[in-house]
Design goal:
The radius of gyration is 14 Å and the shape is flat. The longest helix is centred in the N-terminal third of the chain and has 20 residues. By secondary structure, it is mostly helical. The chain is built from three helices and no strands.
Length: 64
């Protein structure tokens, strides 16, 4: 849950920066948000969550 919230917050910040910087217009941003919203309610949501969890575990296991 904490990872999901962090990713959502990071993506929201990036979206705001892109909107304010003029790199992306409001229309495509709304489409991207709606796509993510509807994708989360499909059967692919569990697979995507497992993929993101495995990436987070891999990054967490890296030691410097």
């Amino acid at each position: 849950m904490a990872i999901s919230l962090s990713v959502v917050l990071l993506l929201a910040i990036i979206l705001v920066v892109l909107l304010r910087g003029g790199s992306i217009k409001a229309g495509p941003a709304i489409v991207a948000v709606l796509f993510g919203f509807f994708l989360a309610s499909t059967g692919m949501a569990d697979d995507i969550q497992r993929f993101l969890d495995s990436i987070a575990e891999m990054v967490n296991s890296i030691s410097f």
